[in-house]
Amino acid sequence: MKRTTLTQYLVEQQRKEQAVSAEVRLLIETVSRACKAIGHAVSKGALGGVLGSLESENVQGEVQKKLDVLSNEILLEANEWGGHLAAMASEEMETIHRIPNRYPKGEYLLLFDPLDGSSNIDVNVSIGTIFSVLHAPHHASGRDVDEDDFLQPGVRQVAAGYAVYGPQTMLVLTVGTGVMGFTLDREMGSWVLTDPNITIPEQTAEFAINMSNMRHWEAPVKRYIDDCLAGASGPLGKDYNMRWVASMVADVHRILTRGGIFMYPRDQRPSGKKGKLRLMYEANPMSFLIEQAGGAAHDGNQRILDVQPTTLHQRIGVILGSKEEVERVKRYHNEAL
Ligand code: P6P
Questions:
Q1: pLDDT digits (tens, 9 = 90+) for 197-256
Q2: Looking only at Cα atoms, what is the longest distance across the chain?
Q3: Nearest residue CA, atom 1 of ligand 1?
Q4: CATH 3.30.540.10 residue ranges in the chain?
Q5: CA angle 136, 274, 152 (to 5 degrees)
Q6: Closest ligand 1 atom, CA of 62?
Q7: Hey, what CATH class is 206-335 in?
Q8: What's the predicted TM-score (pTM) here?
Q9: 211 lines ligand 1 (CB under 6 A)
Q10: How far is CA 171 from CA 20, 77, 85, 292, 312, in A?
Q11: Which atom of ligand 1 is nearest to the CA of 249?
């Protein structure tokens, strides 16, 4: 049976729908190759001497895992020379990484969380790479790119996706014309289109949240989870199941595959007032994918993709997934105003 590869899909998107430029096609193919290399390093585990933590901390103040730093380096090195980017930003780097002068510069910006779910690396649970592509606004002006050029609302993303390193290694991608899932054929080394036009069921009976934070939640979140826990005899009239992998890529992949609602809301702790997850390279790419698959993504106040960023590493509350459930949580927030 003829199988469509990532390259063929991107060429068709470039030719038929003008959905991607030649530069974006090259960028996505380069990122997908880097994800293959990251997945290979991850799969070696202890045999590759890459497990465990370093003495260093990242800009988030989180202890860096060896694989975090390795994954970041793989993405930087893969994308520096291609001529498609002006700069990159990463969860693992305090400031932006400009393309060195020895290479040509392009008109796009690449943002990534090189290895999300780090707390799961050493316990062999699925983790992933999240990426987001923006236009570089400075390009036309000829001035040097700076951090402010990255601070664009998520609605301006050109492309977004993730690789999930699990029982299968998959790449899930949108260029604004739907969500496509590719499975890595390890023998051929190619990404094969196995899940075309992924859509999320509007309804669900499965929620994902870290319940140990319950005492810190704001009232609307507590009300919603209480309603879910009340089951069929409660206001929602059905029994709910709960899942929490504590790896955003794995939780979002499950929701794209079978529906559900994912919640990492802001809470009442000083450290949680803005949420835990990062807007630019976690919430925005995942929200783009979720909306392209027919779901919704909200921060408790507004649509995540409409949020105007103010800093590169800012955090945000995240409520995303099956549209009907996200709308319900949004309604509970509005009723609490
Ligand atoms: P908690 C992983 O560290 C991460 O950034 C996301 O991938 C995940 O959804 C969340 O944090 C898990 O957080 O507090 O449950 O460990």
A1: 999 999 999 999 999 999 999 999 999 999 999 999 999 999 999 999 999 999 999 999
A2: 66
A3: 246
A4: 6-195
A5: 15
A6: 3
A7: alpha beta
A8: 0.96
A9: no
A10: 17, 20, 21, 15, 25
A11: 7
